[in-house]
Write a structure and sequence with these properties.
- The chain is mostly helical and 407 residues long.
- It has 18 helices and no strands.
- Helix 5 runs parallel beside helix 7, helix 9 runs antiparallel to helix 13 and helix 9 crosses helix 16.
- The longest helix is centred in the middle third of the chain and has 30 residues.
């Protein structure tokens, strides 16, 4: 069936819009399942490679470099989506690829198999999320209601909630039933994404710009994509601090600060809590302050947060840093995608795919820089590196905001 824009009152809240629309409701549940499955498995991959397949720890750590293929896969899927308008059809194919990929992990009997799956199959499966957000964008662009971007915020919260719950469930399932069973559970989550959306379809919100059936409907000149690529590059600089933090903050708190395990867990849990509290208000704040200016402020929070990790050696300093990082991602997780789609309005699927797949590139960058940085700078000085990255992002976002690259 073809999804139609909501016809409720213009005063309807974003929450009412989500509840009234089969597309938005289905996407909310699908994205929760995506975040749940992915975040349950990712922290266990290195453990699986070492314990189950017998690889060395340095070789296992190289797995995350397979994420470098994700932006290429995302661009291919996004450009094809813009050319054909088949948003939900591609979503189903990408979700199915994810299910097959994680099932492949579960039955792997050689170290090279997960590397191939991660680079090829899972690189495409990540585009399922961007296709859902593109479908939501298409439907909202036909809506006359005023809560459009707040709908994106609510749906995005579901994805973040999955990422909050997933690591705990994944660790428990792996401990109770084994790593291979946990990967099977992730495969089921990816396959189950398809169910809430049934057989519905969403047509593209604009006609392709190509003059012939074989022409590509995405921008034909690199200059059309430069603002998007610049913005995504700045996002990568901010995001690159996350693998550095998660790779070394717990170790720093345990070995050098002597913080108790319960307090360490509370510190790590502070960021997602602040994210979930802030995300519902991100669109409202962007309307008052300006989207890019607000993201510039969020990047500045990232600078201060990493300075707290590096120069405030106490539990309080760690909590303050995590609160500030929650502010960063409570804003970026909602507004980043909105800005990316605005920067390439005639190819929103390409914009969504490039932006959302960039987190894998950022993780690879952050992991590499963090590994080298901790070897030369040590702890906690390595946290000055993500502070410097975020400072560059502050300057870049301020320039983009001042030039008015988006309305």
């Amino acid at each position: 069936m073809e999804v139609q824009s909501s016809t409720t009152s213009s005063r309807a809240t974003a929450l009412q819009q989500v509840w009234a629309s089969p597309l938005y409701r289905g996407a909310t549940l699908a994205l929760f399942l995506s975040g749940l499955g992915t975040s349950a498995s990712l922290p266990q991959i290195v453990v699986f490679l070492v314990k189950e397949l017998g690889t060395s720890l340095p070789v296992a750590g190289l797995y995350y470099l397979t994420g470098l293929a994700a932006p290429v896969a995302g661009y291919l899927v996004g450009s094809y989506s813009d050319r054909t308008g088949r948003r939900l059809g591609l979503f189903r194919l990408c979700a199915l690829a994810g299910a097959l990929g994680w099932a492949g992990f579960a039955v792997s009997n050689a170290p090279w198999i997960p590397f191939v799956i991660g680079a090829v199959v899972l690189g495409f499966s990540g585009s399922a999320t961007s296709q859902l957000f593109t479908a939501i964008h298409d439907d909202l662009s036909r809506s006359v209601e005023g809560a459009n971007e707040s709908v994106v915020a609510i749906v995005r919260i579901a994805l973040t909630a999955g990422w909050v719950v997933g690591p705990f469930l994944g660790a428990w399932l792996a401990a109770e039933t084994g790593l291979r069973t946990m990967f099977w559970a992730t495969a089921i989550c990816f396959l189950a994404q398809i169910i809430p959306l049934g057989t519905m379809q969403v047509s593209a919100s604009h006609k392709p710009r190509a003059s012939h059936a074989t022409d590509v409907a995405t921008p034909t000149h690199l200059s059309d994509m430069l603002p998007l690529l610049a913005f995504t590059g700045l996002y990568i600089l901010v995001y690159a601090g996350e693998p550095i933090k998660y790779g070394f903050l717990l170790l720093y708190m345990e070995q050098q600060l002597g913080i108790e395990p319960g307090v360490r867990g509370a510190v790590i849990g502070t960021q997602p809590l602040i994210e979930l509290l802030l995300m519902p208000f991100s669109v409202m704040l962007a309307r008052r302050i300006g989207t890019l200016w607000l993201m510039c402020m969020a990047a500045a929070f990232g600078v201060v947060a990493n300075l707290c990790f590096a120069a405030w050696p106490s539990a309080i300093g760690m909590f303050v840093g995590q609160i500030l990082m929650g502010g960063v991602w409570g804003l970026y997780m909602v507004l980043g995608l909105i800005v990316a789609q605005r920067l390439l309005p005639n190819a929103v699927a390409t914009a969504s795919a490039i932006f959302m797949s960039s987190s894998a590139l950022a993780s690879a960058l952050g992991g590499g820089v963090g590994g080298v940085g901790v070897a030369y700078l040590g702890l906690p000085n390595v946290f000055y590196l993500p502070a410097a990255f975020s400072l560059v992002a502050v300057v870049g976002l301020a320039v983009m905001a001042r030039r008015g690259v988006i309305r």
